[in-house]
């Protein structure tokens, strides 16, 4: 054939650059379900179903439109071997590929095509190209979200009023981030969930048979797997949840996995949904007076800001980025991360819903599972492997900087200005978890001491020298001066107990 157009599992957009100039009489699409993509990390069953079901639906839609497609259903081995065989089979003049979402895959596919020319094409899904981000980063000693986000707002005319931001301020976080309080969240609009059709049911059966020993569960499965479903989920979010998104963005509540979040990250990352349409819909809802500015701005900041920013950092810094371990953390990830079987209520809730649905919202990822791993001292690579395995939205370009940089501070402050650390009091304030927990977030030593609180003080003691001159951590460190040697020894002993598996 003339062109072999490679479509990966997170490139399910018929408008993507690889399809430019596609000629159905001479070109062919190639897609492959390579088992290694689900085994190179111990991918959860929910995540595998998400990817394979969306891929099969996308292929079916292409076939319906008459595009010739070589689709390889689940085969053992890696993508590269499969692509090598496809190139030998079709002898294309050129292989076309939109820039992938994973450095490892890019290297493997580059090699796999051998002497056949490979057209690596810009991923137009994003607001900011990798080249544009490199320009932003050039000459800066440190990277910060805020300056990048303002540049993006200006450049793309998002929430702008002439030259200035709508509402007169760039950041409305002060109005956001409340806790539910003792009453709890009350009525919550039900999330958009989609009953599996025959194609998805087939994938669920396949995943149970081939990957039944992988973490989590394949069912119930309700994620969008087609563009039409993704659009429906987007509309439902804008109409029913966005108005309250900002206010409750950081709140948690036991047994309530969805709250006012969008649950659109997987649809976005698989490219079923375009960030431009989502940002335009959120801004439009505000301009129509249907949602407060603080919610629209808080939401747009996540997409136009954080999502683009972490992608920029990923491609700017890979492959070295994955090896960072600035805090020299070396411990193994506790085994209960794969089961949720721990007496710490906040963690069992966050991990439980993660394994059930492949989903946890940002604060659960950052300030519960991520915070615990950071304070415990888990080796960043193991934390990274866990996050890449368990979430339906996990693709390395977005997962790695969030995990290694934002949550574990393993990049030494490149992505986030300070480590996100807190005692159990933070979780107590933002949720109802501590009420039913056998630990007490106010205690750092003794039998009822909350492990977060103990490990927080232990973290400060262990890293006091490193952060002594850090402008944002110095106030936290000053509290250490008031802790005498006896109390320090008690904290160290309790921390050692936690790390020795005292939690069961
Ligand atoms: P909402 O809270 O409703 O936010 C709206 C959208 O904003 C999301 O759909 C997402 O596309 C985007 N967004 C929000 N925060 C971020 C962020 N920090 N970085 C990038 N995009 C963001 N997100 C992923 O898409 N894939 C991952 O693998 C992933 N791993 C993470 C690992 C850790 C340790 C942390 C702390 C965060 C991670 N995130 C990841 C970011 C964020 O937690 C998820 O995007 C979000 O929870 C998805 O749920 P939602 O769609 O309901 O998001
Ligand atoms: Fe989590 Fe500590 Fe609260 Fe228990 S007491 S729920 S471990 S923060």
From TrEMBL:
It holds the Pfam family DPRP. InterPro entries: Crypto/Photolyase_FAD-like_sf, PhrB-like, Rossmann-like_a/b/a_fold, UV-DNA_repair_photolyase. The lineage of its organism: Bacteria, Pseudomonadati, Pseudomonadota, Betaproteobacteria, Burkholderiales. It comes from Hydrogenophaga borbori. Keywords: Lyase. GO terms for molecular function: lyase activity. Gene3D superfamilies: 1.25.40.80, Deoxyribodipyrimidine photolyase-related (1.10.10.1710), DNA Cyclobutane Dipyrimidine Photolyase, subunit A, domain 3 (1.10.579.10), HUPs (3.40.50.620). This is Cryptochrome/photolyase family protein. Signal peptide: none annotated. The keyword Transport does not apply.
């Amino acid at each position: 054939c003339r062109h072999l157009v490679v479509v990966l599992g997170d490139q399910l957009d018929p408008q993507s650059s690889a399809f430019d100039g596609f000629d159905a009489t001479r070109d062919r699409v190639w897609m492959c379900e390579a088992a290694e993509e689900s085994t190179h990390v111990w991918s959860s069953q929910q995540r595998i179903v998400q990817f394979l079901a969306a891929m099969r639906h996308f292929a079916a839609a292409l076939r319906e439109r008459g595009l010739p497609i070589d689709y390889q259903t689940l085969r053992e081995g890696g993508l590269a071997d499969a692509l090598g065989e496809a190139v030998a089979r079709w002898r294309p003049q050129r292989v076309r590929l939109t820039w992938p979402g994973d450095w490892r895959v890019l290297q493997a596919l580059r090699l796999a095509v051998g002497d056949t020319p490979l057209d690596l094409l810009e991923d137009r899904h994003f607001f900011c190209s990798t080249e544009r981000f490199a320009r932003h980063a050039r000459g800066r000693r440190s990277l910060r979200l805020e300056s990048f986000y303002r540049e993006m707002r200006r450049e793309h005319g998002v929430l702008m009023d002439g030259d200035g931001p709508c509402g007169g301020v760039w950041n409305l976080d002060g109005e956001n981030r409340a806790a539910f309080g003792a009453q709890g969240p009350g009525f919550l609009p039900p999330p958009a969930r989609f009953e599996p059709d025959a194609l998805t049911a087939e994938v669920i059966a396949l995943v149970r048979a081939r990957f039944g020993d992988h973490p989590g569960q394949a069912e119930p499965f309700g994620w969008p797997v087609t563009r039409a479903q993704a659009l429906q989920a987007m509309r439902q979010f804008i109409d029913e949840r966005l108005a309250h998104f900002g206010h409750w963005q950081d709140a948690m509540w036991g047994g309530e996995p969805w709250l006012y979040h969008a649950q659109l990250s997987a649809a976005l990352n698989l490219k079923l949904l375009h960030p431009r349409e989502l940002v335009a819909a959120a801004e439009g809802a505000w301009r129509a007076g249907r949602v407060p500015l603080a919610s629209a701005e808080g939401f747009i900041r996540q997409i136009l800001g954080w999502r683009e920013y972490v992608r920029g950092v990923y491609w700017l810094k890979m492959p070295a980025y994955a090896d960072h371990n600035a805090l020299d953390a070396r411990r193994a990830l506790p085994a209960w991360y794969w089961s949720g079987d721990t007496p710490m209520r906040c963690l069992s809730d966050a991990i439980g819903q993660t394994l059930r649905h492949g989903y946890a919202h940002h604060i659960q990822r950052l300030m519960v599972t991520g915070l615990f791993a950071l304070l415990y001292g888990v080796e960043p690579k193991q934390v990274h492997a866990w996050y890449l395995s368990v979430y339906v939205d996990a693709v390395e370009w977005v997962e790695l900087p969030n995990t290694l940089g934002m949550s574990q501070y393993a990049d030494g402050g490149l992505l986030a200005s300070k480590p996100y650390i807190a005692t159990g009091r933070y979780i107590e304030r933002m949720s109802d978890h501590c009420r039913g927990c056998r630990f007490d977030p106010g205690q750092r030593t003794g039998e009822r001491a909350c492990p977060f609180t103990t490990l927080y003080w232990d973290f400060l003691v262990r890293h006091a020298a490193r952060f002594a001159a850090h402008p944002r951590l110095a106030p936290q460190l000053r509290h250490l001066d008031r802790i005498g040697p006896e109390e320090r020894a008690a904290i160290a002993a309790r921390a050692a107990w936690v790390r020795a598996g005292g939690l069961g």
